[in-house]
Amino acid sequence: MTNERSVHLKKADLSPVYLQSERDADYAQLDDGTMTPDDNAAELSKEATDWLIRIREAPDDPEMRLHFERWVTTSRDHRREWEKTCRLWLSVGALPAARDKPSAHNFKPGRRGGRASLAIAACAMAICLLVAWVPGLLIVLQSDYHTGTAETRSLELEDGSTVTLAPGSAIAMDFGQSRRSLRLLQGEAYFDVAHDPARPFVVDAGGLEIEVLGTAFDVMVDSESTRVSLERGLVTASPSGKEASAERRLTPGKALVFDRDAQDMTTSDIDAASIGAWRQGRLHVVNATISSVVERIQRYHPAWISLPDPVLGSQRVTGIYDLTAPDEALGALVDPYGGKVRRISSFARVISRF
């Protein structure tokens, strides 16, 4: 099941300060002008240590993961303090004490070495969890809005347009007097754009520039390509920086795939019901590689998914997968090719044919 949030934006709300505070007011103490830099640093250090304890106590708690992701991406200072705290506790070979301390009569001096080793392992795991939970951390820090694992978010922009972000997605906005620009930094988004001939709406997504006046369409960026699916209206698309002669025009019921390596665009017909179907928890794919589908399912799965077999990953599939049950979706995806999904732990899956 996905988490969904709605946000309404006014023109004055598009400043980075507003976007950051709106996103994280529940998870970070904002400076009201009364705190000194030293006070802020001390507070961040305390918060980072507290998060380390929380991760140690409940590494499999999905709600805690989401809250941690919001905290660590509040600012560069938060991220740096987190990294510094992890390095500190790794260097001394111990973690801060958990909230429920063992009683003195249960403490066995002969086990200190084992406890230290476990502490180091726990802190190393915390650093790994940071990498697993916050993929593309620098991208997230560049964004105005982003979503976490299995989280969707609906934004109403100042011009009346709406943007729905899929899980694991990030956008940056730059609205001006003559142009409404938006970058899809990662993931997928569904756009319903308000008509305004004086201000074209332009989306830059993975090296592809998409321009519209008023329309509804879906854009998805993965490691290989950018895909645009048009539900209503008209859009033009061209590789960023290319001349107008490279431009393609899409009509409703058409999809365009831009291969970044080949710098090639191909168009095809698409079932209208599949456009933005992820909003209803369905993933429609047509002639897609297993590795690209795994990449999309990863955004809905709380565990890290590894697919080390390039032959299996290169197989092509067509089908509909249930995003509300990502483990079952992975199994249905790879089973016809002899693949198995192995649960290594609550936060790791490995897909292989052996």
Automatic annotation (TrEMBL):
Record GO terms (molecular function): sigma factor antagonist activity
Sequence ranges assigned to domain FecR N-terminal in this UniProt record: 46-88
Ranges of residues in domain FecR protein: 144-235
Membrane-traversing stretches: 118-141
One matching Pfam family: DUF4880
Keywords: Membrane, Transmembrane, Transmembrane helix
Highest taxon in the source lineage: Bacteria
The name this protein goes by in its record: DUF4880 domain-containing protein
Naturally occurring in which organism (per UniProt): Rhizobium meliloti (Ensifer meliloti)
